[in-house]
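Morning. Coffee machine broken again, so started the prediction first thing and wrote up yesterday's gels while waiting. Chain of 138 residues, entered below exactly as on the submission form.
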Amino acid sequence: MNEQDFRDILFLLANAWNNADIETALACFSSDCIYMQPPDAYIFKGRDQLKVVFSRLQREENFTWHSIWFDPKTQTGVGEFSYKIHEAHGIVTIELKNGKIKLWREYQWQGCLSWDEFISIEDKDFQLTINNFKREQT
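Came back before lunch.
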């Protein structure tokens, strides 16, 4: 699979989610796929388990890709996304097998911010900055 093919499968998947098209969404995944959020938030194995998860999809779920990267040599890629626009933002690492998603490893943050607010560095009270970072004493 090349970079454009990877992008095509991710946009097909987003469109399927946004239209509650369970069968098209499932077809993007290998039969033995793993869909998870480490370290222990959730895990679903295989299309049968994904079908149960995807059965909860509703039209206009508003899944959007912001950035997508792909390495054709390793058949792995990454995408930044928003889901239900202001409810979750995150990143997913994807491994392919025979042109299908074999591993979906997702990391997400939930809250009520637009994508631009989420990634902005302005007007925020960051928990950790150089001002409160303590280097270990040697």
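The chain has a mean pLDDT of 92. Going to sketch it on the whiteboard this afternoon.
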